[in-house]
Amino acid sequence: MKEYFKVNVSKYAKGKDFTVVRPASLSNPKDNAVMFISDGYMEQTNAFLKCNNCLVFWPESYGVPRNVEEKHAIIKCDDPRSGYCGFFRDNRIIHYPLIEEFDVVNGAYICKTAKIRNNCTIFPGAYIGGEVTIGDNVFIGSGVRIVGEAYIGNNVVIRENAVIGADGLSTDRGENGRALTMPQFGGVVIEDDVQIGALTVIARGAIDNTIIKRGSKIDNSSFISHNVVIGEDTFIVGESIMFGSSSTGKQAFISGNSTIRNGKHIGDKAIVGMGSVVVKNVENNMCVKGNPAK
Fold first, then answer.
1. What is the distance between the alpha carbons of residues 133 and 110, in angstroms, rounded to a whole number?
2. What is the per-residue pLDDT for 224?
3. Rounded Cα gap, residues 80 and 69, in angstroms
4. 226 an active-site residue?
5. In this structure, how many other beta carbons lie within 10 angstroms of the beta carbon of residue 106?
6. Are 225 and 236 in contact (CB under 8 A)?
7. pLDDT tens track for 63-83
8. Which of 72, 95, 226, 265 is catalytic?
9. Are 5 and 93 spatial neighbours (Cβ–Cβ below 8 Å)?
């Protein structure tokens, strides 16, 4: 069990005495984790039956099933997401990449614990963090930064000055309108045969991973935010933005300068026209365009 922090829940829930050591999501519940569930996701409460000894922020307006209450420490609040973020603020928990020992290889900075396989080309000025795994036949251009937990598959191309594993802006407003930030604990998974354009930023997941699936191509100067999942053989043209937890199916096509709202899904073989702003899910094989896209 990987531990990011240690907090005993007795300070939050009377009669409970166990330690939480990591975050977890409804899609990937884990033992001894901090979790939250919001109003729109109450049909997923069975996730809490798949894990034990969690600290769970729960909507005030919903009852807690007895079998969930017995397994976990429950904190009822008006805004569970803000309560979850407040847990990290109050316990002074952050999760930034650490300074690591590195070797300089042909002008690239490669941390000693990074795992790099065969026939890779890494240009001067690149930085490869210690929690990075890189497959065979990977091309990494000058100025690329890969930080945090990242898995790069085989035959991947990452062009100049791309950043893989940066934090996204998972920030709300708390008391008195002050910023309340969710620390980012996820990583990035880039599968085989993916191409990442120059100056593109791919944020690590907030809790689970950001995933770019096999064969996808992302053009220059694009932004892929936290927890995005891009389906196989999808094309994303330059200066497009996919906000947090948005996703695509297989072989989607997102034209240049488009914006996909957080949490929205672009279906298999769907097309998003140039400059579109997508605020609703797009069904398989559909073509949408405009602002808002229709």
1. 11
2. 98
3. 16
4. yes
5. 11
6. no
7. 999 999 999 999 999 999 999
8. 226
9. yes
Q: Determine the Cα–Cα distance for residues 45 and 138; give it in Å rounded to an integer.
A: 41
Q: Long-range pairs for 116-122 at CB < 8 Å and ≥24 separation?
A: 117/154
Q: By the 8 A CB rule, do 109 and 128 touch?
A: yes
Say if residues 62 and 82 touch (Cβ distance below 8 Å): no
- CB contact at 8 A, 201 and 162: yes
pTM of the model: 0.93
Residue 200's contacts (CB-CB under 8 Å, 6 or more residues apart) are: 159, 162, 163, 218, 219, 220, 221, 222, 223, 224
SS3 call for 43: helix
Chain center to CA of 34: 17
254 pLDDT band, cuts 50/70/90, is very high
CATH 2.160.10.10 describes domain 102-288:
yes
35 residue type, one letter = M
Q: In this structure, are residues 262 and 279 in contact, taking their beta carbons and an 8 Å threshold? A: no
